[in-house]
Amino acid sequence: MPIRAYLGTDGSFGPQDLNEIGQAFAAALNKLGLHDRSDPMVEMVARRIIRAAMAGERDREKLTEIGITSRQN
Fold this sequence. Notes:
By secondary structure, this protein is mainly α. 63% of the residues lie in helices and 0% in strands.
């Protein structure tokens, strides 16, 4: 499932941005061993990456790391 499924109708990202975000999402899922797209963690990873991208992050490696780590408060 591409990350676009979690964006809905949001048109905030251009083609290059979507490519970077999508590749970061795929890499994060791979690193976490998430192959079952119905796993709730998949959506959590997508939401983390999308939030970071909406805040301006575009670096694929940073987005991947954001997707696989949780913040501790």
